[in-house]
Amino acid sequence: MRADQIIIEPVLTEKSNIMRERKEKKYTFKVDPRANKIQVMQAVEELFSVKPLKCNILSVKGKPKYTRTKSGVRSGSTTPWKKAIVTVQTGDSIPIIEGV
User: Fold this and answer.
1) Is 28 exposed, middle or buried (0-12, 13-18, 19+ CB in 10 A)?
2) In this structure, what CATH number is given to the domain that contains residue 48?
3) Distance between the two ends of the chain, CA-based, in angstroms?
């Protein structure tokens, strides 16, 4: 897989913003479900020109959702996805995500 296929989008939430502002910067990305830690670290290095120290990957389960219709209540769920938390060296940053 290519680097732009591995990293789908950054995850910008309050918790990820707090992790990004600490001394050791941690960036959170939505990644391809087939990608592993080594591929994610190589993709971050190639796309953003920073040296990642470590990578934690976790699978996010789909949340249950319910919809009311004329014929009753339909149940379903959101799609599950994979999240990667990448720690970069102190002094490095990704200006595209920082908004600078």
Assistant:
1) buried
2) 3.30.70.330
3) 29
